[in-house]
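Researcher: We are triaging several targets before committing to wet-lab work. For this one, the compound of interest is MGD. I'm pasting the protein sequence and the ligand SMILES. What I need is the predicted three-dimensional arrangement of the protein with the ligand bound, expressed as structure tokens, so it can go straight into our comparison scripts without reformatting.
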Amino acid sequence: MGYVQWHSMGRRFFNRLGASRLDRTICSSAGKEGVRITLGGSFGMDPERFDEAKLILIWGSNPIVSNLHLWSRVQEAKRRGAKLVAIDPYRSLSAEKCHEHLALLPGTDAALALWIMHVIVGEGRHDADYVEKYTLGFEALARRVKEYPPQKVAQITGLPAEKIISLAREYAATRPAAIRLNYGLQRHAGGGMAVRNILCLPALTGDWRHPAGGAVLSTSGFFGMNDAKLERPDLLQKARNANPRTINMVAIGDALLEAKPSIRALYVYNPPIRALYVYNSNPVAVAPDSAKVVRGFSREDLFTVVHEQFLTDTCDYADIVLPATTQLEHHDVHTAYGHLYVVANSPAIAPLGESLPNSEAFRRLAARMGFAEECFSDSDEDICRQALESSDPRMQGIDWDSLKEKGWQRLNVPGRFAPFAQGKFGTPSGKCEFYSETAKGMGMDPLPTYIAPRESAQSNPALAGRYPLAIISPPNRHFLNSSFANMPFAIAEAGEPSLEIHPRDAVARGIANGDAVRVFNDRGSLTARARVSDKAREGVVVALSVWWRKLTADGRNANDLTSQALTDIGRGATFYDCLVDVARIP
Ligand SMILES: Nc1nc2c(c(=O)[nH]1)N[C@H]1C(S)=C(S)[C@@H](COP(=O)(O)OP(=O)(O)OC[C@H]3O[C@@H](n4cnc5c(=O)[nH]c(N)nc54)[C@H](O)[C@@H]3O)O[C@H]1N2
Ligand SMILES: Nc1nc2c(c(=O)[nH]1)N[C@H]1C(S)=C(S)[C@@H](COP(=O)(O)OP(=O)(O)OC[C@H]3O[C@@H](n4cnc5c(=O)[nH]c(N)nc54)[C@H](O)[C@@H]3O)O[C@H]1N2
Ligand SMILES: [Mo]
């Protein structure tokens, strides 16, 4: 995810060529759009200040696995007496360490947030002064939340009404309260709306006044890197086709098969994709609906290049595999995964063997194709320098020479940073938008609402009749998505593909702890070892991921089950919006 190896020379090359554009939506784009509606961009509280919060909601987030640097701040808060509440269908490693755990049904967070707002507004516990000065649409919101009384929300979320009520009261009464919401909760049909709703909460309570209050999904909006200089979108004008189509990486299976685009993926796959260049990704393992992905990659008439560090599942379908350098062998500059620092990555060793950085592969390709523009001769350190050439006041004092020397530099923001203490949101109104014309423009309800999962008992009873269990497949602690899932040390820790299943769901299917089980739906199936415990709530099973297909006993992984359907906004992936059934393998 460095700026050099992720999006500089490669983007320049593909822009100059006029190649199909890639919609990079597999991870976070629904949430990103949700934040944009309410706050106006990828902003939030400073994660470093979680140590001073009095109440922390760990919401659709598993920091012990995926965001360890936050967890040290959360632990510090706990030592100082803060209360920790996890909101997650699964008792993850992080949920286990919280004082309370609300195991809601997957994809129902938007309704829970509406109910918390119902309590805050209904009991007059909102910060009237903050709401008056810095928010838009309070009256309309107050009417809307009345439509979400506790019994209705209890039914949607599968949580006892008393639990929801006490959480809402506690949140309403405690300042500062900090919410770490993360990407787990937005991998659902209504994922964008869920994030949009949750981010309304701190404006109602006035938590944004405090450096240790508020909420954070991503801090990426604070970084004013010079993307235009890195990617050079202007080069597209020189391409033969200056207006190429866009292909969504979530639906790469359909795109390669030219199948009918999935719901809401309004792209025309015409002409067919004839050549594919893969770098920084292992789509055969990580993209949803593997059966289609594998069929697409298997096309004999598809020319596939994979630039990789390891011989991944995707490499098995390549015509040419090029060796790539690792982070230890190349230069780069990094921004944050949930903090406010810019970081220099300097190589520790020279590239091994014939491996090349992504940037160098594209530099050489550009030369061979006669692309004469000067930017194709920039060195990696030139690119690092350009990435930091920014007029953004938060970037002042950070340049490549100083960064390389220091290793890391905090953005030019106050030590005790409360970005929205005086409003100044990035929205068109400059306020926190409970009512949003932006949402309306996207074809959404302008007010917070609940969008049900695509696959659930409430939204699709017929499907749930055949496949009654919801499956979620978040990362195994020892893997980084599919990275490291080939390393002996990581496999030794992760064990084998497993399925957490609640005792009542197991008994109903004659499944005992340790049994081999088949997990299946209309898209595919896989085998796993059953782990019977109450870690997954009833009605939900958990298959920690992302295993390499070729390294599992049956050559499959959780994405054999997941669908290419997209989120409400952001055209994102719905990995955790997925129904299955499970059977014991005799
Ligand atoms: N060790 C490690 N670290 C990582 C990664 C990794 O693979 N391994 N991946 C990195 C990347 S690319 C990302 S995007 C992040 C992902 O990390 P997170 O943003 O934390 O997302 P997930 O791990 O997908 O899911 C977090 C939690 O959300 C829960 N969840 C699932 N569905 C729902 C729901 O509907 N509602 C609620 N409330 N919770 C739900 C899951 O059970 C899980 O415990 O981590 C990054 N860090
Ligand atoms: N079922 C399920 N599926 C998921 C997820 C899930 O939680 N469950 N998570 C989803 C999410 S959030 C994400 S972000 C995606 C991630 O999916 P990907 O973006 O494909 O990420 P990785 O699986 O880590 O694979 C990255 C590959 O890039 C290679 N690589 C690393 N650095 C370099 C480099 O500098 N140059 C080159 N050429 N290659 C390099 C690594 O060796 C690795 O094979 O997966 C998604 N898929
Ligand atoms: Mo991700």
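Researcher: Any quick observations?
Model: The two ends are 44 Å apart (CA to CA).
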